[in-house]
Recover the amino acids of this structure.
């Protein structure tokens, strides 16, 4: 057999990883902002089926893979004995693999025994990506994340105690305008309690058809504007204090792609980047946002290019003439970047 199954998503940092699907879809599937597995049923794949996939992958890719990502949303629900077999199967077939990573729900981490988590770590599972999204109970409840702040902290701390490298995803804008300050403060303090190795930003986009879009249509969720989202990130970064962690901004949805560095050493530089953006004249901020939402990877200094400025101004003038609201347009453009 040379065919194998793969799931629909992986984190940006796993772009070059071998994708091994050990479960299908998401067991929770209720997060209001998430469009990924809606309407799909969760299932665990039998270990023998996954091992057959690994044989097919070995036949296709040889021993080239260096990193592996286990799909889909929560592979840690697999029985620990089966997961250990799969991890050992990966290591046996791909001896050059340096890192195996998986998504994990904090809830699952909190209910798995430390003994089982340590067994998985010893079998070669190196890194876990957890969707913290927010450390504020009010925000977690609003978006039906299915986990409390206390559980998020407990799950993250257990992953660290078991020896995993831990990456926590944070979603700027998730509290909307009403809960922005709380979201920034409580997310930062939750991370200070967890002490993850990585904090990854992935800015909210309200995707049509999701429960969050329905909340917005009813006026129960007021999205945060682009500039206010930068202010929220500034407040969040200040809240991290001296936490030692690596901040990553590796998703195109993030307005400031260069907001990455080692904390706390790079804290002043990163706060300076935020200050620089906020100090831009309003027209330059709009040009910058438009360029980013068009998919350009630029720094604010690049706006000095007269040809680029002219092009962006023509687009903005056309929108204005058509009576379009720039903020609504940016929000719509963000949905196409998911
Ligand atoms: S965000 Fe993650 S846990 Fe929530 S529904 Fe989507 S895949 Fe499932």
């Amino acid at each position: 057999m040379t065919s194998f199954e793969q799931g629909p998503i992986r984190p940006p940092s796993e772009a070059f990883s071998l994708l091994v699907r050990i479960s299908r879809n998401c067991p929770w599937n209720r997060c209001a902002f998430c469009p990924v597995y809606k309407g799909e049923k969760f299932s665990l794949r039998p270990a023998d089926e996954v091992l057959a996939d690994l044989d097919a992958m070995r036949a296709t890719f040889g021993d080239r893979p260096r990193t592996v990502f286990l799909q889909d949303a929560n592979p840690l629900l697999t029985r620990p004995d089966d997961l250990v077999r799969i991890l050992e199967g990966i290591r046996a077939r791909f001896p050059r693999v340096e890192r195996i990573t998986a998504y994990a729900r904090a809830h699952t981490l909190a209910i798995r025994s430390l003994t089982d988590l340590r067994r998985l770590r010893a079998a070669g599972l190196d890194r876990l990506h957890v969707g913290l999204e927010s450390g504020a109970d009010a925000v977690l409840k609003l978006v039906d994340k299915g986990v409390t702040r206390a559980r998020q902290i407990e799950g993250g701390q257990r992953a660290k105690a078991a020896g995993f490298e831990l990456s926590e995803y944070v979603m700027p804008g998730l509290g909307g305008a009403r809960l922005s300050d709380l979201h920034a403060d409580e997310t930062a303090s939750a991370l200070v309690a967890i002490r993850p190795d990585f904090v990854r930003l992935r800015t909210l986009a309200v995707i049509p058809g999701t429960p969050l879009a329905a909340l917005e249509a009813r006026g129960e969720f007021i999205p945060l504007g682009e500039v206010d989202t930068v202010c929220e990130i500034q407040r969040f970064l200040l809240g991290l204090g001296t936490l030692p962690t690596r901040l990553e901004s590796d998703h195109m949805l993030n307005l400031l792609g260069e907001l990455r560095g080692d904390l706390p050493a790079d804290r002043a530089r990163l706060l300076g980047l935020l200050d620089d953006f906020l100090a831009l004249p309003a027209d330059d901020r709009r040009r910058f946002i438009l360029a980013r939402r068009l998919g350009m990877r630029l720094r604010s200094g690049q706006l000095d290019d007269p040809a680029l400025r002219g092009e962006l101004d023509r687009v903005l003038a056309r929108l204005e003439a058509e009576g379009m609201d720039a903020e609504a347009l940016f929000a719509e453009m963000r949905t196409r970047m998911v």
Notes: The pocket of iron/sulfur cluster is lined by residues 26, 28-31, 34, 36-37, 73, 105, 131 (CB under 6 Å).
